[in-house]
Amino acid sequence: MGVSKVRRTLLVWLAALGIALSVSPASFGAGELEDVIFAFDRVAIAWGQAEAPIQFSLGGLPEGAKIRAFGLSFGFRASALRFQNARVLLDGRSDLYVVDYTTVADYSTVRVEVFFAQPLSIADGPCATLTFSPELIYDEETEKESLQLPIHLIHGEETWISLEGFAPLVPVKNLQDGGIDLWGDDAIHFGSPSAPRGSVVVVPIMLTNVAPFASLTVGVDYDEDMLGLLACEIAPESQGGVSSMETTIVGGILTLDVTFNAGFTSCPSAYRPIALLTFWVSADAPPGAVIDLGPRTHAEGSVANVRGRCVTIPVEVAEGGTILVQDNRRRFLRGDVNADGVLDTSDPITLLSFLFRNPPLSIADCPDAADINDDGSLNLADVLGLLAYTFSGGQPPRPPFPEAGLDPTPDALAPCERAD
Question: Where in the chain are all domains bearing CATH 2.60.40.680?
């Protein structure tokens, strides 16, 4: 047995014996550890980016598990990456060791071991961050596509976990490799979210920049019959770096003109969030439909050169730009304030109580049902409208009525939680 293995086994046993004096170890079945997963994330970086942090996660842990230690070994291409450091994300005092760092030909391997002073309650999720430095030279002849740099976890006794109530070292065999997608081009990425019809969806616009951008123009062509644009705002991550953002809509094409503060894009970065587009997905959109933000989606940017002038350059629209429509079971009957399935005198009474009684009756499960005139607010006008319809044949509530259905219009009211 090697010196490092003897040391880690001794450390784990000493920690276990120290805790056993005061805390009874958890009782787990031996087979439960077969589902434990070690995994690396995939991240994106741009040419010239100094660091690439990758999260290491644990999954499939037994319920109530307490961790005493873990070790992982991983390998990567030495000519492309250099390992910098590891940092434990879990609360609790721990000792971290980089036990081995060896390079043979074009392949490096690193073994990291972490020991906790006290067994630590832990659930599935991130537990460490590993930081790498890309060691690549930008090549003007590189193809315009991302270069994948995998990080491979290594099977065997070098990748293990120690939980309270189990044998000191348990090899982990369920390994999920991650890695780095390296971008050598300036590119725009659209998010591709999914959303129920008759609801709001947010589509992020992200920038990968190799060049230092002074400004950016992005055009988004969307189907106005399927989508309604509600808002366009600067992404929170870029609030301090965007000096202005202007929007125009001509012929169904939204154009964003973004100006950056000096220095904000001076360092290369991948998938930097720039803007958030908020759309209303029409209630008439069929479930399963894929709404394309195109085909005329385009982008271009300006880059300040050494003489201080700005030069316009094309920016690749790399990916995304679709919204997957899901079904929506949150149907309601407008005017049915108390959710009993019919409109009668109890509904305006319920609405009056909500507006004026202290404490009010709750209609939190579907405030839209009480918005009789569909103006996006609840007030006395809704009570009067409902009373007029109920007692004197006044104007009926706005759709969905007289049958339950989806809200056809966006508003600031909380979404209805009733399901058919």
Answer: 3-183, 187-326
